[in-house]
Amino acid sequence: MWQDSIVLGDYVDICCHQILPLVASATPDGKIDLLSDDGAKTCIRKDSTPCILKWHPQKRFLAVSWSSGVVGIWCEQEQIFREGNAHSMEILVLEWSPSGNRLVSADIDGQVVVWKVDARGRLLSICQYRLKGAIRNCLFQKIFLPESKSESPPFFLGGSNGIVYYADDMGHCSEGTQVSGEVVAFEMLESTSALIVIDSDMNLYEISLSIDGKMNLEKQVKLSVGSRPNKSVFQIILVAPNTIAYASGGHIIRILDITNEESENLALPEGGTDSGFAVMWKLHVENGLENEISVSWEVGNEGKLMAVLTKSFVKLFTEQSLSWSYSGDITAIQVGPTKLTIIAKTYIDISTSIRIRGISLSTGYIVVWNGQLAEVYEYNPGPNPG
């Protein structure tokens, strides 16, 4: 069962944890909130504007960057925000390593910092690079070479000058290749570990990487993006081992099989996501955003949570297992977020004032709770029907 809730607020960014039911959001006045069905709880407040929010791959650590150049980690268990100061300008990149023991930050002036993150979320700058132009993209390599002396796999960097850099956390950074325009997006093919680079001219490059770090161009394809693509909102994801989905504004999502160079288009409903639609992969359309303009959305908690950011609120969609309980020959089953049915000698429907997270049944009484509150209802099974 899916249920939804609305958290009101002037939010400009959201971030869902990939494996935990955690959602963070940012306001333009420097406030970071943690969102849930029960509302918003402020965890950080600063005088500068938040730039990027990124949850740790496994832990309850939230990395945050600010327009002042500050990088910090909010530790949810300790309820503390730990800062690192190495930048002086707006940060454009914030990326965790696959294991979460490294964090890479890069700013608009080309300053790149590799941070070591310990078990308590404390930051230590272990190396820095000064590169040409603004760095806007970072992607860690999927394969970690066992003979490497590093504790983290190397990573790719790209930005405004079209250069693709190959770097690690031990002070090594080299120019691998250069594309014709600004680097817009990175992705990694799972089957071949090839790097996919897309530039501002909408060219796609498939680049292989040798053991010594040398980049080789394997394929270049001109992407079909329509007559007026919005490059500032270009997005790309891997949907199959050699297949990507990408969009650059408008109502079309394009699917490309890179190996065979075959493509298909998915058409969004009229108005698209900017008219309050959330469209699932099988083209099942959910219209539940009350005609608000959808700014962005994220999926987390292993696919059991979706957060949709609009101009005036965040709407949370959460998957919940239905609760049930029995006592003797009487059974209670949850049939909705705030509804349950008791099956005895007759059927008894009960509506609660709280969202149901658990049920406990006894003869004549039933208790429901949501983790914070509990309600007790008395019921009478009644005579046999007929």
Brief descriptors of the model:
single chain, 386 residues, mainly beta, four-stranded antiparallel beta sheet, 37 strands
Describe the 3D structure.
With 386 residues, this protein is mostly beta strands. It is 0% helix and 55% strand. The protein has strands spanning 2-8, 13-16, 23-26, 31-36, 39-45, 50-55, 61-66, 70-75, 80-85, 91-96, 102-107, 111-117, 123-130, 135-140, 155-159, 163-167, 173-178, 183-188, 195-199, 203-209, 215-222, 235-240, 243-247, 252-257, 262-267, 277-279, 285-287, 294-300, 305-310, 313-319, 324-327, 330-336, 339-343, 347-351, 358-362, 365-369, 374-378. The strands form ten sheets. The protein has a four-stranded antiparallel β-sheet, with no helix packed on it. A four-stranded antiparallel β-sheet has the order 2-3-4-5, with no helix packed on it. Strands 6-7-8-9 form a four-stranded antiparallel β-sheet, with no helix packed on it. Strand 31 and strand 32 (330-336) form a beta hairpin. The chain is elongated, with a radius of gyration of 25 Å. The chain starts with a strand and ends in an 8-residue tail after the last strand. Mean pLDDT is 84; it is low at 281-293.
